[in-house]
Queue: 2 jobs
Job 1
Amino acid sequence: MIPSIPSSRLFQLTYRFYVVAFFIYLLLPLTIVILFSFNDSLFPSLPWKGFTLDWYLGTREPRLGIFHDSELLESVWTSVVVAAATTVLSVVVSLCNAFLFEREEFAGKNLLYLMMLVPLVIPGVILGVSILIFGSSLANHIEAWWGFDIEGLRPGLPLVVLGQFAFITTICTLVISARLRKFDQSLEEAALNLGASRWTAIRTITLPYLRPALVGAAIVSFLMSFENFNTTLMLVGSDAPLTIAMFDRLREGSTPVINAVSTLLMLFSGALAMASVFVQRPARG
Amino acid sequence: MARPERSLGLFLLMTPLLLWLVLLILIPHLDMLLISLQERVAARQYQLSMSHYLEFFTEPLYINTFIRTALMSLLATGITLLIAFPVAYYIAKMARGRSQHLLFLLCLIPFWVSELVRTYGWMILLRESGIISQGLLWIGITSQPLEMLYNDVAIMIGLVYGSMLFMVVPLVTTLGSLDDSLVEAGYDLGGNHWNVLREVIIPHAAPGITSGCIVVFMLSLGNYLTPVLLGGKSSLWFTEQIYTQFITRFNWEQGAALGILLLLLSSLIVWAGLLLSGQSFRKVMS
C-alpha cells in the first residue's frame, strides 16, 4: 500500500475515489453555507431564487443585511473585545509558563506540568459551570461579609474572558514552549558575556526569536476565543458574543443573514489561519 | 546553588501559573464538588448529603442519557477513526510533494471555521426543505420531502464531521514517520495488505490513534451545540441536561452533581484508553 508496492488498478481507483469523496464531504457543508448567503429567498433552502447581496447589504426588515443588523454587529464587537482580552492574558501567562517549564528546575515540576495540561481534557461546559459556581459563591461570600456586590463575578463578559483564558492558556503554552525548546541558549550566554543584563539578553535575543510563536499563539487564541461556544454559553450575561447571538437566531429559525455572517467569519478566520501559517513558516527551516 | 536573584525569578514565573491553575481550575472544580454534595433543607439552609447523586441513580432519564451520551461518543470516535485512517494514510504515504501539502491544508479548513457554522451547514443540508431532501425529490427517489434532521444519525454525522481533523492530524503525523522500507519488508515477507496493515502499520500508528481517539471522544462527550441543533428536542445529550439544571431550572446542586459525574466518566475513559494502549497522558496531549 505504498507507491513502490504494486497493487491492482481497481484497488488504486477505489482508494482515490474514497479520498475524493472524503474531501467533498469535508467541504460540502461550508460551500453550501456560502452559496446560500447569496440566495434571493427568505429561507436558507432550495429552491434557488436568484442571486442577491441583500443578506450583506440589505437595509430593512425582513431583508436586513449583516452590515445593517445592529444586534449582530454589536455581538461581533463584544466577541472582538472578549477575544482581545483573552489573547493578551493567555499569551502573557503562557510566555511565563514556557520559561518556567523550559528553563527552570524545581520540585514538583512534573506534577505542575501535568496540571497545566489538565484543562485540555475538561469538557467546555464543565469548565464554564465550575467557574460560574466559584464566581457566584465568591461574590455571595463577599456580599455577606462586606456588604458589596462585585459585578465581575456574576455571569458576564469578565467571567467569559476568565473561562476562555482557563483553557486557551494551555494551548498557547504548548505553542510557545515548543519554540523555546529549540532556542540555542549559548546565544543568550554570549549576550551575558558581552555585558548585557539578563533582562536585556532576553529582550533583545530570546523574545525576537520567540516572535513567530508569540504571534502564532496570539492568532490561535484569538480565533479560539472568537469561536468558543460551550464555555461561553455557561458564563454569558446580558451581552452576547457572536456565537451566542447566532445560536439564538438559529433556534428562532433565521434568514440567510446567518449565512452571510458565516461566510464573513470563514473569510476572516481563513485569513488569520493563513497569517499564522505564514508567520510560523520560517521556524521550520 | 540557589541564588536569591534566581529564586525571585522562579517565584515571579510561577505566580501566574499557580494563580491560573488554583483560581480557575482547582478551586472551581472543588467548589463544584462541594455544591453537588449539598442539599437544601430550608431557605438558605444546606446540609451535606448524597441526595443529588441518588437522584441520578434513581431517575431513569439521567442514567439513560448518561449511558447514551457515552455510547454515542464512543461510536462517533470509532466511525471517525475508520473514516480518517485511510485518508491520513493517503496523505502521509501515497501523496507526494505539493499535493501532500495541499491535501493536508484542505483537512485543516473546517477546523478554522466555527463549530456553529459547520453545524449550520449540516442543518441546511439535512432539514426537510434542505438540499438533500429536495435533491432526492427532484431526482424522483422520494415522492415527498424527507426530514433528516432531529435524529441520531444527524447527531452522529455532526459529531464525526466536527472532530475529523483531530483524528486526521495525529494520524498523518505518526504515519508520516513510518519508514517505507518497513512496509516493503512486510510485503517481501509474503504479507498481503491486511497482514501488513495489522502487523506493521497499525502498531506504528498506535500513539496517533490513541491521541486522536481521546481527543475525539472528549469533544463528542462534552459537545453541546451539535446534539442540540442537529438532534433537536430528542437529542438527550448529557451536557444539555447539565445546562438545563443550571440555566433553566436554576438547580445548581443537581447540575453540579451531573457535572462531576460527566467529569468522572470522561477521566475514567481517557485513563482506560491510555492504560489499554500503554501511552502516557503527557505524550498524548503535547
Job 2
Amino acid sequence: MKMTYYPGCSLQGTARDYNDTILEVCQTIGVELNEIEDWNCCGASSAHMTNHEVAMRLSIRNLLLAAKSSDNVLIPCSACYQRLKAADKALREDPEYWDVTDYNPDFKLVHISTFLAEPEILELIADKVIQPVGKMKVACYYGCLSLRPPHITDAPNHEMPTTLENIVTAIGADPVSWSHKTECCSGSLTMTRPDIAGKLVGEIVEAARRGGATAMVTDCPMCQANVESRQELPPGASMVVYYATELIAAALTGSYPEKQQKVHLVPAHALQAHMERSAHNVGTASGSTTETTSQKEESA
Amino acid sequence: MQNSPISPAKGSRKLLKKLSSRDIDVQTCYQCNRCSAGCPVADYFDLQPMEIVRLASYGMEDQLLASSTIWLCASCDTCATRCPNDIDITALMDVLRELALRKDIPPAVPQVPAFHASFLESVRRWGRTYEIGMIGAYKLRSGDYAGDMKLGISMLAKGKLSLLPHSIEGKPEIREIFAGKGKEYER
Ligand code: SF4
Ligand code: SF4
C-alpha cells in the first residue's frame, strides 16, 4: 500500500522519535510512505488564531503539493490534521475563492490513529508482533485537534473515541476506562502560561492514575510534550506518555531500546518492564498470558 | 461584565458583518451556557465564553477586544463542538484576536500574541518551524527570560530541539502568503 506522508514540523523537532517509530511500523507492515516534497509548516494554532488568510494559504500550499498524487495522505500530528482538513474542505467547496482553478483530488486525509485502527491494518500489526507489551495498563489520551470540531475532522466518535484503545489492545496492552481522554491539555498555552498548562496537565495525569493507568498513550506530539513536561510531580510519581507507534514498534521488534527511553522527559521504563515480564511469562507458562489474565479477571 | 453598558446602538455593525461572512451565527445563542461549562480554561477568563457570544451578538467590539479571554482561549474547540446551535465560538475567538491585532489594541495577556508572532516569524523565514529560533525570539519579544529555561535545557539535552532551521525551497511562495497575496479584496 502506498500513502503520501505529511510529517509536520513537530516530527522533525521535539517529536523526531515519533516520526522514527511511524516509519518503522509502516515499513514492517508494508505501507510505503512518500513524503510530500518541500512541504511547509501548517501554521498550527498560531496562524489560525491570529491570521485566517495566512493559515488557510499555508495549508493550501501543502494540499496542492499532495494533489500531485492520488494516494491518501497520512497525517500523524493532530494540529496539522485539523488544519489540513479545514483547508481541504474549504478548497473543495469553493476553490476559486482561494485562487485555485480546480481542486477535486481523489485522496482522503487520514489521521494516523484512524489509519492504524482499520481492521486490515490491525491484523497486519497483530500478525507481526514478536513480543506483546504485556497487559500494561494504559490511559489512551486523544486531546483535541484530531477530533474537534467534528464537522472538520470527520471523527465519528469525537466525545468517546476508541481508535487508540483498539490499537493498543492489538499489541497486548490493557487500556483503562478513564474520564479525561478528550480533555484539552492547553498545549497552545504551554510556553506563555505554564501555570495554566500545569493545572490542566495535573488534572489529566491525576485522572489517568484514578483510572488505574501506569502510563499514557497518545497520538498527538503536542500533548506528548506538554503532558510530560508540565507535570509538577516528583520524578518517581510522574507519568510517562508514549506515542502509540512507540508501543507498536516495541511489540514488532520485541524490544524497547534504551536510546528511545532516554528521549522521554520523565522516567520511561514501564514499557520495558512489562515487555520483560510478558516475555518471561510466555517463556515459562505453556498457555498464552493473555488468556490466563482475562480468565482470572472473569472469575474475580 | 458588571459596568459595561450593552446596547445594539453602541455595537459595531462592521463586526457583525464580519462574523456573518465567516458563518459565525452568534444571534442563535439561547444562553444555555454549555460552552462555558465545558471550557477547560474558563477559570482564568475575565469573560466567560457565553458572555463573549452575548457581547458579540450586540457587536460590543471594544469590550471583546480588550478581554483576556480572547488570548487565554486555548482553541480546543470544546465549546464549538458542544454548542447546540452550532455557533463556531472558536472561530469567533480567531476573528476577535485577528481584529485586536490589526487594530493595535493593547492585549490583556501580551505574552500570548508575542508567542504567536515569534512562531509565525519562524515559519515566514524558513517555511517550517525552527524551535530554538522561535523560543529565542519569543523570549526577546515578551521579556519572559526566567520562566522555562530549565525545560528548554532539558529538551536540548534530550536532543529534542534541532540546532539548525529546516529550510524549504518554496520560501518565496511562503513570503507571498505572509505578504498578503490573495488578500487583495480585503476580506
Ligand atoms: S453553547 Fe451555544 S447556545 Fe449555548 S450559551 Fe454557548 S454559544 Fe450560546
Ligand atoms: S476553544 Fe477556547 S473558549 Fe472554547 S472551550 Fe476551548 S479554550 Fe474554552
